[in-house]
Structure prediction request, 83 residues.
Amino acid sequence: MPDYLSILATLGASLLVLVAVAWAGVLTLLLRGRRSGGTAGRSGRILSGVPHQRQAAPHVEAVELTPAEQDAFAGLVRQLGRY
Prediction:
């Protein structure tokens, strides 16, 4: 050990390196587990808390605008088009 380093500085640096290596190892395990399908639990279900998604799109609704509403919307579009 060099004379100009104290024991506390050496221990601090060693601890910092140890924590960094442990963090990198845990991060690698987490990312590797996620990539290989690690989201499946022990029961084999994937993300059981999330409801199933619809396969079909929802019904599309349309509303007819009155001529006054169409004019107001056109004015709004012109105002926003300036920016």
Q: What stands out?
A: Residues 7-35 form the longest helix (29 residues). The chain is about 55% helix and 0% strand. The chain has a mean pLDDT of 83.
